């Protein structure tokens, strides 16, 4: 959702400048008070139409500056939108870097349980480990794979690091998990590999957000990084 919001804001800024900048720049660029209005441009009677090279060059210069500024703003907006989509790059961390050993054990256990359930395309057996929001999101993803006759396999998972434990609230915390796994997608009917490497582990790093309620500890959000 955050990524979508960033993209929307960037596009909104682009639309704002493209829509309103020409009007604002027209007032500031010399196109008034003698160019087209009042007594400066068109005269009645015998005078006809008056113009000069200076007026034309001023207008051309103003238009050129506006076009360049608009193109610069559009380019900046595109860069912002792209950067919002691309996953941030972080350092892969090995070792457990949190003091609470019991919490580390629980995090690892729930992480592996959810990943293993995902590998079987049935997360209903670990629904108690999910918040309602994330469970609905992951269920939708799996159903979408099913509709497209695709299967996402996540195998041979090895957790190599826990780091950056951060308590956002008294009942909400984040933890970065570095792990290796074989991750790939196949066509259910043909068994052809559509994405990923079925014979090689890859390194991953994710930030999991957990919430704690009367039922226990539940995963509420997962953010993936580039490494």
TrEMBL record:
It comes from the Bacteria. The keyword Ribosomal protein does not apply. The keyword Membrane applies. Residues 1-26 form the signal peptide. Keywords: Membrane, Signal, Transmembrane, Transmembrane helix. The chain crosses the membrane at residues 67-86. This is Tim44-like domain-containing protein. The lineage of its organism: Bacteria, Bacillati, Bacillota, Bacilli, Lactobacillales.
């Amino acid at each position: 959702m955050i990524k979508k919001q960033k993209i929307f804001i960037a596009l909104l800024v682009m639309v704002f400048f493209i829509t309103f900048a020409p009007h604002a720049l027209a007032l500031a660029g010399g196109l008034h008070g003698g160019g087209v209005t009042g007594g400066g441009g068109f005269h009645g009677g015998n005078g006809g139409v008056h113009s000069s090279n200076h007026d034309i060059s001023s207008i051309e210069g103003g238009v050129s500056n506006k076009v360049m500024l608009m193109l610069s703003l559009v380019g900046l907006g595109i860069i912002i939108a792209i950067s919002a989509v691309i996953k941030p790059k972080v350092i892969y961390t090995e070792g457990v870097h949190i003091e609470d050993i019991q919490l580390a054990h629980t995090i690892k256990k729930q992480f592996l349980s959810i990943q293993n359930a995902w590998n079987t395309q049935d997360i209903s057996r670990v629904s108690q480990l999910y918040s309602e929001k994330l469970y609905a999101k992951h269920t939708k993803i799996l159903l979408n794979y099913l509709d497209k006759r695709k299967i996402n396999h996540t195998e041979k998972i090895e957790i190599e690091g826990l780091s950056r434990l951060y308590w956002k609230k008294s009942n909400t915390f984040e933890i970065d998990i570095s792990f290796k796994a074989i991750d790939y997608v196949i066509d259910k009917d043909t068994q052809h590999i559509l994405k990923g490497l079925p014979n090689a582990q890859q390194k991953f790093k994710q930030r999991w957000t957990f919430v704690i309620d009367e039922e226990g500890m539940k995963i509420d959000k997962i953010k993936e990084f580039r490494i």
